[in-house]
Give the backbone structure.
Amino acid sequence: MKAPSLSPQLSEANAGRKPYFAGLRPLVFLNVAWEFLLVLGASLFSPATETVAHAIGISRSLMNNFGLLDILFFHALALPLASVLMIVTLGAFGVLGRTRKIVLYAATVGCLLASGMMGFILVTGGSPISYGLMYIGMALAGVAAVSLLVGLWPRRDPGAQMKLAGRALAGWAMWVTMLAAIVSVSVGAYAAISNIQYNPSTLSAEMQGLEAAHMTLIIAIIGVAVVLLAVKWFGADSYRGDPGLFVKIGLYGTLVGVPVVVATSLWAAPEAIGPTGDIGISAAILIQASLFLMFAMMYEEAKRLHVRGPLGVLRESLTFGMLFVLFWVNIAVTLPGIYVAVNLARFNSQYWGFVYQQVFNIEHMHALITLTAISLLMLVALMFGVKGILGAAAGLTMTVGYVVATAAGLYITFFAEPYVAAFIPYVSYGIVLMFVGVLLALVGIAVSKGGWQAEAGARERSVPLPSATPLEGVG
């Protein structure tokens, strides 16, 4: 595979040292493997596997407790995903020096410690020590996020094709996205520890709205970050002509859309039934920006890889699968979600009872969470050189599995009776396919020798070295 076009930025203090992705593979593998084991273990707590769970000694009370504390499980899943995202962002945007070390250690140790303790609390009920370790891990993850925000501050790059105020436009977009993530996490922390939440008389729409805003914002922000990482991986910010125009519009749309979505969500959420139409309009900015970026990357990659038909797409299923699911999620999940949000009162009064709302919420949130996970994993597999039959099989199974599961979920939500629909088994088929794809990608990451890491080493000797930023000059 021809190496993508990149703009490496190595500081003088780190000249001659390991390239951007050196040493990241084991940490990425560790986080992804832990995520895989968490999901695999959690599958035993599904009603579909209740018989198996009881056979191996999982009591009904434990299964009920898992359901009551599912928000803890969601956070246990989110932390390793956040760790992978921060780690590969270091490599993609060339963050080196002291910032790199802080982010690597704090993200890996903090996220895995907090996630592990959350799993322990779910199974055992927890103890003061386990809760204390969980909060320590979450604090370390916060340190990693803030440090990465500092390290991502865009530097002047004379070689950048797309610039804003003399600095790389893609760098600005990722910095704003990282800032939005920290804001959303802060909102979630407020919703979790606010005294209002623990007062039954005032546990009202405000806290529920903040919780919904937190989850939706985090998922949207991770999706945007994955798209921006793809821009760096494919060198899309160096495209020229019409594809370059699409990328530039998409990056500016991201730069505007992220803060607008955050602002409107936090404004509307406390009211629960507030200006949901404004949220939909602001989300449309991000959707359009992402579609522009994905169209440009699909077009250019099809030319670069000489793809002329379906077999070529299958051979490069990691590339096109990753870009396609980011497109597909808008059709199967995001647009239906915006439509429901804008017409929430009408749906509540005329169409849906409690069961339908529950099914939609579960399907909608799980589809979005799964999208961020598998799209990031496919991109990470590309970054670490997973290709050939193994890469094609991993990309194909994850892509087909996601499309089948979300299409079935969409049909069940809008056109069938919940819980008895004939399409329910197809959701399970899609999940099994995605499990297989994740396992194949894990094997590929473990055994592959190519990828961005190897290519960066060749560039290290020929790229001019700009001056170091304050945090990068300390090795």
Remarks:
- The first strand starts at residue 163 and ends at 164.
- The mean pLDDT is 76.
- The chain has three domains: 16-152, 165-287, 305-475.
- The radius of gyration is 22 Å.
